C-alpha cells in the first residue's frame, strides 16, 4: 500500500480507502462489512470513510461494531464522519453551531469512539454563515473530538472563504475536501480547485471513482436487477447509467484495460490515483472479492504512462463534447 499526506497536513492516508456509503447498514449486513474491512486492512488500508447520513446513522453503528469486535488498534486507523443530514428535526440538518456539535457527539456514540480523525461538512449550508460553521468546527478540533476538518462538495470560493475566516480569527482552517472525481466528473478537482492545492495545501478524499459503477462496464447492456441503480432511493442513477455518451466512452475504454491485463474498474481507479492532488481514492465494496479486485489498481497505476493516459483521453472524447 502507498500512503499519502492529506494535502499539507501531517496525517497520512492509504492511497486506496474504503467507504460505507450505500452499503453498510443498508445494502450489506455487519458480517459482510467486517469481512470487507478485514480484507482492506490486510491490504494496508488505514482510512475508512463514513457519515451521519449514511443509512440514517446505521453505517456508523456497523463500522463501530466491526472495529470494536475486531480489536484493531485505534491509532492504526483513520476514521471519518460527515455532518449535515442528522435527522428530521429543524435543527438536525445543516451546519449550524448546534448541529455541528450535536452531530459530532452523536456520531461518536454510534461509532463507539472518543474521536474521529477527520470530520467533513457534508455539503455547503446556505442557511448558516460560514463563520459560524468554522467556529463550530474549531471547537470540535480543540475538544479533541476530531483531528482535522474539511468540506465535501463545497465550491472553491466557499473553501477559500472558510480558510480566510479561520486565518483571520486564529481558528483551525479546513484541511481537506471530499469531491466526486472520476473519468466522467473532472472539472471541479482538475480546474476549480487547482489554485487551492498550492495556496492552502488542500487534500482530497475523492468519492465515486467508478462513477457509481458505470466505469465497471456492467451497465453496457442495461441495468442489472441487483445493481445499485435499482436499489430503493437510488433511482436517480438510472439516467446516468443509460447515458449514450458515457456508454460510448466505456466501449472505447474497454480495449485499453484489456491490453493492460486488468478490468475497466481497476484502470479507472488507477487513473484517479495518477492525479497528484488525490490524497486517497474511496472505494466501495459489498463483497470481499471486490476489495481484492480494487486493491490491484495500485499495480496498474504504474502502467499508466503518458501514452496510455493519452489513449484514455481520446477514448473519453464522447463525454467531453
CATH architectural name: Alpha-Beta Barrel
Q: What is the distance, rounded to the nearest whole angstrom, between the alpha carbons of the first and last residues?
A: 36 Å
State the order of secondary-structure elements, H for helix, E for strand: EEEHEHEHEHEHEHHEHHHEHHHH
Can you tell me the number of structural domains?
1
Report the average pLDDT across residues.
93
Biggest sheet, in brief? 8 strands, parallel, barrel
CATH topology: TIM Barrel
State the share of residues found in helices, binned by percent.
Answer: 40-55%
CATH fourth-tier homologous superfamily: NADP-dependent oxidoreductase domain
Radius of gyration: 19 Å
In quaternary terms, these chains amount to single chain
